[in-house]
Specification:
alpha+beta; 2 domains; 70% helix; Heat Shock Protein 90; 400 residues; five-stranded mixed sheet
């Protein structure tokens, strides 16, 4: 009876942990009555399963299936994300069990058979159990903190990792009958390495997504600013049309009244307001002109020395041209101190871009900006030269 109650209590601890972590992943509030009832019912069924006369491998598989089904039935949710959350909890449980089984083997205690433990060993086993629960809780909290949004490819990777985890876990359970601690520890380390690799891949994926999102936000900011500029230009154009219309009406009225001097004054006033309002282009190429004008307007604390000689059309994709210039200008404008020299010269065969200034931060070949620029430069059989003297200089040659 004591052995039955001790085993049952341990299963209760396990399912408290399972259901609580499942609530964390599902973002669901805990209903106390439902939670307590679920813990007691599932712990009892689990204990009955473990009392069955079967091999450890088969029991392990049944346990994993039972844990996953119990979590799904408890929440009454059977969507893909819910299934993956249940898989996650079971997989973390398998890793934790394997890890602490290895610890138990190191101290010559088989934690798979608690009914054979003495009081001292049972107390130590409880300590290991608590540590295992803490390990699982920290793991799930970190998993949730990363807010992994899995794609179908990630699902497939996870399921594959899970199946391998089950295979290794059952092998460890089978080997626990022997005394080869070294083999068990190695299997455990392999198991942990497998899931560490999986979560490392997912974490790198998150970083890449965040970087892409950041770049997308920058692009959207630029587009928003351009749209606002277009709106302002439209307002100015409408005002110009309205003022010009009124001007012609006034001139016509003055001429009808033979007031030629007043008519000339109206024309001079119009010329003063609008005759000198046109903008001289920096470059014949419209894309280069717009980008440079935008940066000059935004970074008014920087003095730009420009030398631009580029024809209106060059045999280079507009997207590639914009990307190279935006990446370079963003880097230099954010890091240059006071003055920036920009030289862009090209024809229908080649294009050279040179930017030079005293910078706080030096562009390196390992930086993301350099790698992105180099991807485009390689498409045009070009090269990048970085020169660091008193000023930092970046030279780019592109060939068409």
């Amino acid at each position: 009876m004591i052995e039955f109650l001790s085993e049952f209590c341990l299963h209760i601890i396990d399912f408290i942990c399972f259901l609580y972590m499942y609530h964390i992943l599902e973002n669901e509030k805990i209903n106390k009555k439902k939670f307590i009832g679920g813990v007691l019912v599932f712990a009892l069924f689990w204990h009955v399963i473990e009392m069955m006369d079967a091999s450890r491998v088969l029991l392990t598989i049944w346990n994993d299936v039972f844990i996953i089904l119990s979590l799904l039935v408890y929440m009454k949710k059977f969507k893909v994300q819910d299934i993956m959350n249940a898989f996650t909890i079971d997989a973390v449980f398998r890793v934790s069990v394997s890890l602490f089984m290895a610890l138990g083997e190191i101290i010559h205690m088989d934690i798979a058979y608690t009914n054979s433990l003495g009081l001292y060993q049972f107390c130590f086993f409880i300590v290991l159990k608590i540590l295992m629960v803490i390990f699982m809780w920290l793991f799930i909290r970190q998993f949730k903190k990363l807010q992994i949004n899995m794609t179908m490819k990630s699902y497939n990777i996870f399921i594959g990792s899970y199946l391998i985890c089950i295979l290794i876990g059952t092998t460890i359970m089978q080997l626990s009958k022997n005394n080869d601690v070294y083999v068990k520890v190695m299997f455990t380390l392999l198991l942990i390495a497998l899931f560490s690799f999986y979560f490392a891949v997912e974490y790198i994926t998150i970083i890449i997504r965040k970087y892409q999102t950041m770049k997308m936000e920058e692009i959207m900011d630029i587009e928003e600013k351009q749209i606002n500029e277009m709106i302002e230009e439209q307002k100015k154009t409408m005002k110009f049309i309205h003022d010009t219309k009124n001007l012609f009406i006034d001139i016509e009225s003055s001429i009808d009244q033979n007031q030629l001097i007043e008519a000339k004054d109206l024309i001079k006033n119009w010329y003063y307001l609008y005759g000198t309002s046109y903008v001289t282009k920096i470059c014949r190429n419209s894309y280069i002109d717009v980008i440079l004008r935008q940066k000059i307007e935004y970074y008014q604390n920087i003095h730009f020395n420009l030398k631009i000689q580029v024809p209106e059309n060059i045999p280079m994709k507009n997207r590639d041209l914009l990307s190279v210039l935006m990446l370079l200008l963003n880097y230099f404008c954010e890091n240059v101190k006071n003055e920036l020299d920009i030289s862009i010269c090209g024809n229908h065969n080649e294009l050279s871009i040179c930017m030079k200034g005293m910078c706080h931060k030096i562009l390196t070949e390992n930086s993301v900006e350099y790698q992105n620029i180099n991807m485009i430069v390689e498409k045009y059989n070009g090269n990048i030269v970085l020169i660091q003297n008193k000023d930092f200089e970046c030279r780019i040659m592109l060939f068409f």
